[in-house]
Design goal:
Layout lengths: L18 E4 L2 E3 L9 E5 L2 E5 L5 H14 L5 E5 L5 H4 L9 E5 H8 L3 H9 L5 H6 L10 E3 L2 E6 L2 E7 L8 E5 L4 E9 L11 H14 L3 E6 L8 H20 L4 H13 L9 H36 L5
Parallel strand pairs: 4-5, 5-6, 6-7, 11-12
Antiparallel strand pairs: 1-2, 2-3, 3-4, 8-9, 9-10, 10-11
Helix pairs in contact: 6-7, 7-8, 7-9, 8-9
Length: 316
């Protein structure tokens, strides 16, 4: 059984002590935005994702340096381009950033307007908002398309593109230690964010994760778990696809579908009262995305059926 550190210290923005999942592999589940991790190798440190809030990012770097003083930071791998995973890159320089090629495209397009939206999202938390006055976007230095592998000492770190959550979402798999950082493909007891989703890719990604048979899955949000946790989010997506298709067949518009189904989807996971409005908006974004997918699938099916009918013309 892997040794885990349970001592916790809380600060203004929820600072917390690291946990060791396997020898030299650490995570911190107390930060906002994502669960970052790092892997110690004989040649230096490989990080997975970066805390969004500056105090937390600085705290995370201090914890790494406390654990392995003098070891260089080799790489930081972003599991996708969203702010909760990649905006903290600036606090770990000098360090090479690795991500899927689509993440590079997205992050290279982050403008001053994007930075202002990030700051404004914390307008009710002025302490955090003030920390975000000097955002520097650090896009990937190294990109990959499908798969990549890092070999450092005895460590093998595999990068696996799966998509689904975003067009850049990737897994970080350590086969020798049976630990997989799955990013935002897996949400535990929370509504998944689906505004950029491809739901069929997402379902395939969940199946890929199950096939890894990892001892530990590290979600982008929620506690460390096993592949058993992938089933609930898969059921959620399948249910959403089925109900959206029902509404589409009934002639409902996209807006009618969103309004009609948000309540059904809301029941799938617990929702704190103070976050209900935000979660409802998030669900509607997912329904919007899935409606377009179902619409496209149905239109393609109709064309295929018409072509099949036409090919039979004149047969006797």
């Amino acid at each position: 059984m892997a040794r885990r550190r349970n001592t916790t210290r809380f600060g203004v923005t929820g600072l917390g002590e690291r946990e060791e999942l396997a020898p030299g592999i650490f995570i911190n589940t107390h930060y906002r935005g994502c669960t970052p991790g790092f892997v110690h190798t004989e040649e230096g440190i490989i990080l997975v994702d970066a805390p969004l809030i500056p105090k937390q990012a600085i705290d995370w770097r201090e914890q790494i340096e406390q654990q392995y003083p003098g070891d260089p930071l080799l790489y930081i791998i972003n599991t996708d381009h969203h702010r909760g995973h990649a905006l903290g890159n600036q606090y770990f320089m000098p360090c090479k950033v690795i991500a899927h090629e689509r993440a590079h495209k997205e992050m290279s397009g982050y403008t001053e307007n994007f930075k202002e939206r990030v700051r404004n999202s914390f307008k009710r938390e002025p302490d955090i908002q003030a920390q975000l006055n000097n955002i520097v976007i650090i896009p990937p230095d190294i990109t990959f398309t499908k798969n990549a592998r890092l070999l450092y000492g005895t460590r093998e770190v595999d990068l696996i593109f799966v998509g689904g959550h975003t067009p850049a979402t990737s897994l970080v798999w350590l086969p020798n230690e049976s630990v997989c950082f799955v990013g935002d493909i897996l949400w535990v007891d929370q509504h998944p964010y689906m505004a950029q989703a491809n739901s069929l890719e997402w379902l395939d990604a969940l199946e890929h994760i199950r096939n890894l048979d990892a001892e530990y899955l590290v979600p982008g949000h929620g506690p460390v778990c096993t592949s058993e946790a992938t089933h609930k989010v898969g059921e959620y997506i399948l249910f959403m696809r089925g109900r959206v298709r029902d509404y589409y067949h009934a002639g409902k518009t996209k807006n009618e579908t969103k309004s009609g189904l948000v309540g059904e989807m809301l029941e799938w996971f617990p929702v704190p009262a103070e976050r209900k409005v935000k979660i409802e908006s998030q669900i509607k974004s997912g329904l919007n995305r899935v409606y377009r997918e179902i619409q496209r699938e149905e239109e393609e099916n109709a064309i295929s059926n018409d072509d099949a009918d036409d090919s039979g013309d004149g047969d006797l």
